[in-house]
């Protein structure tokens, strides 16, 4: 086999990875599985909270079946935090317009002059907050005020699941995420095989496309016909989607990409291209 053909093999394998649909299908199945598990865990967390607040009523409602169910109830204090974090991550990607609502049911409103049934939150429940009045300790608000908020959070998680399963859900971003994974893997293989400029160019295209999608997600538009990484970066920072450290990092990645694209400049180092690939992978997984 000639040296030229040998050097082309990594590129062929990289292109093959970009066309591979197995990763996409695996990710779709993973989302379905995660959503189903989150819904089930949320239901058990809600029951655990209801039992904590109204034990007699719950036992009466479930009758003899509750003895077995009680054994699988989660420990709310620790298990809720994991459920909350995992749910936020999925909502952020699949139903971003409900993310603020989901967090609002957990976080204590600020500022808050007094604590009432209307502004009691799950965060208060986790702290065991109870408000009483007078020497008779008349109850003003207690942990049971958090139940409606957990019910709403669970409803949002189930809405994500329903939207995912329905034909109304646009899976374009999921498909694009899979393509990005394949292209990043292709860039990594190109770099490994000595094609530094090609690897940087592929990674740069992924970053540019992803920033464009993030801008679209936040209804940010530009008059430029062919906006660059730098253009999107400035737009997202101006809209407060990006903070200054992230903006600076993307600016750095854009500089490396430009170095890879323009042959009249100096040759990019392997470390610089690796920095670009790693940075692109990070932002495609954390910036939406």
Give a structural overview.
The structure is a single chain. The chain is an all-alpha fold and 288 residues long. The protein folds into two domains: 135 residues; 116 residues, Nucleotidyltransferases  domain 2 (Four Helix Bundle (Hemerythrin (Met), subunit A), Up-down Bundle), CATH 1.20.120. The chain is built from 13 helices and two strands; from the N terminus they run αααααααββαααααα. Strands 1-2 form a two-stranded antiparallel sheet. α2 packs across α3, α2 crosses α5 and α10 runs parallel beside α11. The longest helix is centred in the N-terminal third of the chain and has 32 residues. The chain is elongated, with a radius of gyration of 25 Å.
Structural class assignment: mainly alpha
Strand content: under 5%
Query: Could you tell me the radius of gyration in angstroms?
Result: 25 Å
- Helical segment tally? 13
Please name the defining characteristics of this protein.
elongated; Four Helix Bundle (Hemerythrin (Met), subunit A); 288 residues; 2 strands; 2 domains; two-stranded antiparallel sheet; mainly alpha; disordered N terminus
